[in-house]
Queue: 2 jobs
Job 1
Amino acid sequence: MERKDFLKRLGMSSLILPLMVSCSKDDDPTPSTGTCTSTDSETAGPFPTKDPSSLVLASIVSDRTGVAFTIKITIQDKNNSCAALEGAIVDIWHCDKDGYYSEYGGTTMQTVDYTSVHFLRGRQTTDSNGMVGFTSIFPGWYSGRATHIHVHIYNAAGTSLLVTQIGFPEGSGSAVSLVNASTANGYTKGMSGYTYNASDNIFADSQDTEIGTVAGSVANGFEITHTIVVSA
Amino acid sequence: MAKGVIQICYRKIIDATSASIWDKYVFEDTYKEFLMQVQQFDQQQKYATFQEILKNTPKADQMHYLVSTAAIGYIRQLNERMPDVVNVFGKPCVPFKNFRFEIIQSHVKNKDLHKVVIYFYSEPITWIDTISHNQLLFAPGDQLEALANRKKVETEMMVLSPNISITSYQQNNSITL
């Protein structure tokens, strides 16, 4: 093949041919032509910007569906007369309506999109009232456990203060019963086989401090409020 | 005649010696996340290395994923172009959407021992030819049909470097042996 044909097939016009011939690396001296100097090319950019952890979210719904749910957690400091603890980092995570967590596969392949493996996990920092809030969907349940939300509280420096869980009130008319009966919202398990708090090996001995307060309706969504006391 | 459609994988290791800004951000933020998450798995703080924690605490392999949450923002900033894998003009040229993140090693008291790896998997690309010993002429996507029909396709010349592997290959059936 003739060189010109080869270049033609590559889509190279005569206009960019000189560029190819004099192709320079980034560290070559800046080329000069006549009285003006070409602007340097910049191949290293765009420069990265500091990016917070993808856990820092107020809405942790991602691609999950279910009954609307708001989580409001207040952190108090036992070492400061139970005053609100400002600046604490609060991680939460819970399962989806079918009882599944974000991918725990560890080293499996992920996509840049990430939503299919990264859901219902969030991180917020407490305000001056010691509060954090998350928008989510009402968690489902899985065999062996009562409905729950995992919470990990750190001080502002990231030192762990407490790893705990928030349980849900139960019984007829409770949000847990109503939501799990809501097939219209995709909850298909009902309460058959559910592990109640009294039989749950996490909550059985700690229901007085670990069960949140839940209000709302299936139609309008529920809200859980809970206070967690740490020793900061 | 194009050789076939391939997927390439680039293995990028990030540790305390990494020099670029992107690498440093990933290094710093994944180490910080490691320190935060490790406290959930080793609440008694009995262990120092990731290997010890992995061996002795249940479910600690979840940490690969949990720590990756600190890297995903930077991975998104790459705009779906593999870092470091450049064309002859020095520009990123290989499209990717998939990656795998692993902690190779880490230490709760020694940041210098923190080391992670990100495997970037390319989207399918058409391997047209190999030029010299280290340049791959390719076209993004599956262009076998277009090439067979003598249509013009946009191409890239990628410089092959260490840590790049071809991880899948679909032969061009129109090759005549």
Job 2
Amino acid sequence: MSALMELEHFAGFRERVEMLSGENVFACYQCGMCTAGCSFADEMDVLPHQVIRQLQLNNWKVLESNAKWICASCLNCQTRCPKGVDLSKLMEAMRQIYLRQQLDQVEITQLSADQIRCLPQIALVASFRKKTG
Amino acid sequence: MSTSSENTIRIYVMGSAYEVPRGLTIMNAMEHAGWRFTRGAGCRSGFCGACSTVYRHEGDYRLRFVLACQTEAEDGMYLVQLPFTPAPRVSYTLAELNPDENVLLQHYPEIARCVSCNTCTKACPQDIEVMDYVQAALRGDIAQTASLSFDCIQCGLCSMRCPADIKHYHMAQMARRIYGRYMSPITEHLEDRIAEIEKGVYEEELDALVKMTRSELEDIYAARVVE
Amino acid sequence: MNNTAYFPGCSLKAEAGDYERSAAAVMEALGQPLEELERWTCCGTVYSLTDDDLMHQMATVRNLIRAQECGAEEIVTLCSMCFNTLKRSKVFIEQDAARLETVNAFMDEEPDYEGDVEVVHLLEILRDQVGFESIEGRVTRPLSGLRVAPYYGCTLLRPREIGIDEPDTPTILQDFIRTLWATPVEFAFQAECCGTYQIVDAPELVLEKSHRILNSAMRAGAEIMITSCPLCMHNLRLAYEELRSSLPDKRELSIVYWTQLAAIALEVETGELPTSMGKLVEGLPTTMELVP
């Protein structure tokens, strides 16, 4: 976590997220459709529409939310947003900010051989793509 | 700037320039320049994988990968040796493995991070299709992994270059061992012969041979049946 | 049918072997056997969502080049995740000439990708090229009376730009079920996420979401659930195993691939099926292998 603290001094946090995602966070007008349709919202400590609100406010602390790791990129949010904002890309941008600093969310070496034996390859490939850098 | 002549070329070893005779291998050229290999040299025959070398040509941006003992030194080469790759080799007991299709993934789960960039193949001094064997391993095709990786000499260049930190050569060695132990056909005539030997079918002949004099041995050797 | 190369993806050669076997048998019976793409590589399973990432698009382009090299006009997949990744990645690369140029330049050991290979899911080929009616004509074992819940998952339908049907009100699987003379069961969670790759490090999340999907289908009266994704299959079956003992009235749900249902109806090889399936289909065809 300490590595990420440097972001406190990171002046272009919102700009970085927008650059990585190609999305304009100010297009969101907080209707809440994304949260309403999100299958995983009940597990998140900050709800999807709240995440984008924090991005609008340039509050880098939203990076500490677990929302981006719980997000499964199911795209319900993107499909239903009346303003065409792709929240899944914003979530990915926040994941990448961590992962590109080598802060992996899944520690591969801690997966046991038994765990791996029971999982289809696509689960591992997908999980490593989303949660390791 | 290189100042080569008909008989000499200029090479750069870790940044310092040396004039060496034309026509030597990289390894010999470096030794000629006064370098002594205490690491990174082995069989000198292209087999042991100790002398992995990274170099580039003057004016070129690309890095290239060869074995120092097998490649001729060229004018303007910028050279560095790679005597060791710190790639972890997973411990296992071959006889206790369950050779199902996930076994490679279980021991080297990072192969699921392969992005098919082919950097490993480009780094291989043995022209092995490294990416292809990693892909075969990912989908559980142990036989194909073993077959494609057959010429590997464990030099480690693939793993050094891989953006996903895969341990190609250790994983492939495991595949080849599994193939040999569990999958390759058992030669029945070998089994038969071992049984014969254990039953003592050849004991008498061997005893007789051991007791023969040199000239008796020479006689029976000269009179042997050649098929 | 167009000149089509079949892209299996990793799981179809391993855990989801039944999906491939049943699909191959069905396509053989329809006179259009699947021809596997040579030297294919893993597509990456999930689409990379950052705009600056070309590294994770390369696998797609490499596979498109393989298709191009063998003269195929399109790649067809069975795995919905592969379909989603390949298609979205293809669109991303092709929509910007600079991206395509960069990827081609990086992969200098391959011929350039020229942008002419399409990516389709087998369901699209059956709907648009073969036609569901012509499949209906080949059904020799009508599945009349069987109540089948179509589970779409995420990757077949979203994003809208590449989906094979309307994301909120899809009908393609229901139509397919009717083609086999079975009865589609509508249920609320037909396109909700099963939990996908969270199974690796957050399995409790997956079990909760998958339970919801299964319960919703069973309450609506489903006896069978069909899926098109090996990861959905894995997650749903895992959740079903956990759920089974607590189900009232010993209610059962047979979770199978949509191609396996077709294989039963066309009486061709089905791959392994759950034993509960054997109770639903009278007079088991010899092509059915039942496993608990």
